[in-house]
Each structure stands twice: as structure tokens, then as C-alpha cells.
Please model this.
Amino acid sequence: MAGLELPTRGEVIWPGFSTIPAERAQDIGVVFQSPSLVPALDGAENTALPLILAGVGEQECRDRVAEALELVGVSNLAAKLPEELSGGQAQRVAVARVLAQRPQLVLADEPTGQLDHATGQHLIDVLLDATARIGAALVVTTHDRTVLERLDTHWTMHEGRLRSAATQGAIS
Model:
């Protein structure tokens, strides 16, 4: 969906987005299972990195980084290196990095997979709240039923194909 890999056949279409991966990249943010923070950069610098690479101006970059770190509740960790952060804190910085880009779509790949239950539930709270605040759609892949139950619509995949969809309250 993010266009990180080309499909072996067919195409990935998302309403309102270009079918050309390079053109839609700015509209899609990806939260990976592992935070994937750059070890030599502190929390603010990790959050700013995609903005800098996209050519966002210095003041706007600072403003967006501060806003994103605040949204996920880690403003106080902006000067900390990844090695100084807990797993949950590092994952929230990774979420801030995505939110600072102000994407229209946030894809979260097993975002709670390496976290304890309480930290994972808090991260889902953060993702749901923050994406609502910036007006982004949120797609989460998960094997965790407690995460699934927090989301409005659920799709099941079987052998690489979408099998079924359900809305909240219709989960069996």
C-alpha cells in the first residue's frame, strides 16, 4: 500500500492518490513494527529528518516537529538519543516522525508488536487520537485482537487475499 515494493502484478489504488508511488509518497506515512530511528540523531532530529529531506523550511520544520512530539506526548524527550529511550518512547518518536509529515494516510505495521500490553494500548490511543487530529486515515496491520477491537473496520487476509470485512460490533 505504501509503494515500498512494486506488486508482482496489478496495481495498488487508493482513492484520491496517484498510482505512481513516487507521487503518492508524500501523502502516506508508515509506522514500522520497529521504530527504525537513526541512532546518532535525537528525538527532535529523527522527527525532523523526513521534513528536511523534503525541503521543508527551517521554521516550519521546527513548528511541525514540536507539534508532532506534543501530539504523541514525548516533547520532554526531544533531546534524547534513541538508546536513551524505552521501546514505547522510541515508537512514539517514530509515530511523531510520521505525523510531522502530515500525511493523508498512516499505515502502521504491527506498531505494538514489540511492546508490552499497556504500552501497546497507549500507542494505539496515541495513533487514533493523533490521526483524528490531523485528519488522516489510519490502516493498522496486527495479529493482536485487543488492537483489532479498538479499530472501526476490520479486514481479514487469507493466503495474500482480502477475505472479509467487518465493522466494530460485528467481530466474531
Remarks:
- DSSP finds six helices and five strands in the chain.
- The first strand starts at residue 28 and ends at 31.
